[in-house]
Amino acid sequence: MSFLDVTDLDITYTVGAGSLKAVDGVSFSLRKGESMGIVGESGCGKTTIAKGLMQLLPKNGAITRGSITLNGRELVGLSKEAVRRLRLKEIAMISQSAMNALNPVYTIGDQLVEGIMAHTSFGNRGAYKRAVEVFEMVGLEEKRMRSFPHQMSGGMKQRAVIAMALSLNPSLIIADEPTTALDVVVQDRILHRIIKIQKEINSSMIFITHDISVVSEICETIVVMYGGKVMEMSPTDTFFRRPFHPYSLGLKNAFPLITEITDELISIPGTPPNLLLELKGCRFNERCPFAQQKCAVELPLFYEPEPGHKVACHFPERVEEFRERSSHRDTWEVVRERLIREYMEKGAVEYA
Amino acid sequence: MLGYIIRRLLIMVLMILLVSTMIFLLFRTMPGDPTASMVDPSIPREARQALLERYGLHESLWTQYAIFMKDLVRLDFGTSYFYNRPVLRVIQDRLPATLILMFTAMLFAYIIGIFGGAWMAWKRGTKLESLGITFSLIFRSAPTFWVGLLVIMFFAVRLGWFPAQGMRSTGYVGNTFREIFLTTDFLRHLVLPAFTAGLYFLATPTLIMRNSMLEVLSEDYIEMAHAKGLRERRVLYRHAARNALLPVVTAGALFIGAAIGGQVLIEVVYSWPGLGREIVQAVTRSDYPLAQGCFIILSTLVMVMNLIADVLYAFLDPRITY
Amino acid sequence: MGQMITRIREFMRSGLNPKQGGGSSIRRNSQSFFAVFITSLKSDKLALIGVVLLIFFIFVGIFAEQIAPHGPRDRHYTEDRQIRRLEPPSWEHPFGTTDVGRDIYSQVVLGTRTALIVGFLAALLVTFVGSVVGIISGYFGGVVDTVLMRIVDFFYAIPFIPFVIVLAAVLKPSLWNVILAVSMLSWRTVARIVRSQVLSIAKRPYIKAAKVAGAGHVRIMFKYILPNVIPLVLLEMAFMVNWAITAEASIAFLGFGDPRVTSWGQILHINFVSGYSRAAWWWTIPPGLAIVLLLVSIFFFARSLEAVVDPRLRKR
Hints:
The complex is a heterotrimer of chains A (352), B (322) and C (316). Chain B contains 13 helices and no strands. With 322 residues, chain B is mainly α. Chain B folds into two domains: 2-73, no CATH class; 91-316, MetI-like fold. In chain B, helix 7 crosses helix 11 (232-269), helix 9 (184-217) crosses helix 11 (232-269) and helix 11 runs parallel beside helix 12. Chains in contact: A-B, B-C. At the B-C interface, helix 1, helix 6, helix 7, helix 9 and helix 11 of B face helix 1, helix 6, helix 7, helix 10 and helix 11 of C.
């Protein structure tokens, strides 16, 4: 048993009359102190996992199956009060939109102190002292405690949010695209600060992003998600040397590592599947350049090419061929043409 | 901040002068004989001349205006024809009644409206919420004076719970502020008019609070507050309601003008001896100096309340700097 | 401030918003105003009730004289020549009679026309003046804007009912003067809302393009800005109708209305002044209820209009 175990997790949203499984049978585990990256396009369910772990799903969303255990303790079905106690103290979130994550009418200090006091018996002064400490950790001056959010730059706000998340040395940090709103230079600095502090306080981290090159720099494991399902899961170094899944290959093309940058970027044509529809086969089959008949009807099971490396593809034995072909633009162009053709045909049918 | 308030006060004084000028012109340059509306034309000529001179109405418009403004600056609104007392004295007698009724009703309306609106947002999509909205709408549509009549008919006449009119029982004479306003008799008289006015004021804060709250509840900082592990109630009131309050304050300021109109009607229906009823009676009795004075004071009241709302807003929202 | 007012206006309105879903999906812009309106009626029962009720009121207003069984001032007598004083409702007099034996039902029917005339004319005047000021202010900006907005501020500082009372007293009491008085103080709201809308429109590229192409101010305002403001103006107008009807009723209730014209406010004025508002419920309730029903029906009508005006609502 690891520190965090997520087993067969389903998260469903009710939308109008139908429902949509945003997270579908996802399992993974995390060791103490380990950092894991979850990557995928928007809508692949990565943010939903984060919200599910925090139990912050919107009213129309719910965990419909599976379990989440933290240090052996089951989190699904906990009472509201028990969940509240866990938040910030055990599981802290660095949210996607730090720009708007701070309440405009209170000072930053107040907001930090408030969070600390909700979980500790520190008095006002003790909480303040702790807040100043984490402020220093993220590189903010003490006087910023008295600033209102509108008086700070984006980078400072982001650091304040990070300080807040770290204020009680949580054992699990969930960072949901923590730097997307910032410019590249600031992004890099803040990323490294998060990692440094995470190592210092030895917490585990789930890092959610659409950019796999970031994951290669900071995470030990990587989980590639698509359409609510895990496509590939592996230690980061193995993954970047030997990716298996065609989707992973496509993502690698779209977000090349610094060391591998070529002249042109190759994107994956098409859009993620509509999860409101009933899907039978591999979620990626529509956009996969190597898809066969089987892929559309049968869900691929996990295949383990090496310990700790799992791939959900029907054709792991053809991986060498896939790797070779996926680096050519033409391979993906074929998909684009196929999608356009299908779209036109569908349109024609609807028209007739 | 202080500079801002001073600037606003100066603008206010200017506005009051403008309003006064407008009302002065309105009374004196209307079609027909301007003196006809000021002095009863049927009285004998000599007496009429004497009256005109007494009130300074024989002078040219400019001279009259100059005198009017000079007096105004000294807070001299002239003498009421009807009471034969200085207008300022009459207003001084009436103002507290108006203010007490208005603030009681506003307090009632804003407390219920703010909590009710927040609660409705929280209960979004339930039967109770649509019931709340429907009621707010009906009370917004129903004319206050009519609601007042119904309330009197039911609570005062049928049930006899509270007195139907006036500010104190007949025979009661109070002289000091304390004797007049701090008695159970006064409070019993206050209940129905304050309730009616409160119902009229209620819809605005309720609906605005509800919608503003709905908007705020989807903000990221609310999710963040949950993520911090704060208690539900703390998130709802300290984080969401606090932000949702801002538009309510602004709306309150804009509503004051309408509120004073409602106040006039309620004072008439309940024979409440306030400024609103006084201005209606003064106009009916052609007591123009008094009508003028009441109008200027009521306008000033609107402006003062607006200023208070703006200052309150600045106090509530740190993003505002003056 | 202007923006805040627009937002608050939105908030006040959307108290009426159709609930989520409502069966309407995203529509294309090419759909006509009318078609969207009809669809929104179909999906929203309350709006439908509102429209039906409103049509009913308009019908009663137009044919008031034919519908009302008696003249508003006719006195009714029993067979033994007694005045029918304060009779509760009966078949003959559905809403009973007044203290001098007048038929309240006929008065309420005739009052419908007054309410509608005042409501629509005043709203028309208010929205016209308000839109013109708002468009000019928002389009030209600068000094023009500042001056116009200071005037608007000035009118915001004037308490509405007291002003109308004074005006009604100084002018001769007539329906037209009531309409004038209501309009004089209400255009400011529309002006502000239209102005902030124009400000956002004026920034759009096609306005700049038109300017570059050498279109004159008047042409830009009429051809490019006005069409974008009209939906909002229509919506505001619906709210102004309500405002004007309430204002007229209040003025008439205080006794400053046109004594020759039967109106709901006037019925209640006589009811109150006669002292019978405490007992004769059949006299007090019908005119007030008529006001409430008319206003609520216009609110609901406006809410279906709003779905047409604001595409965001349709998606929700």
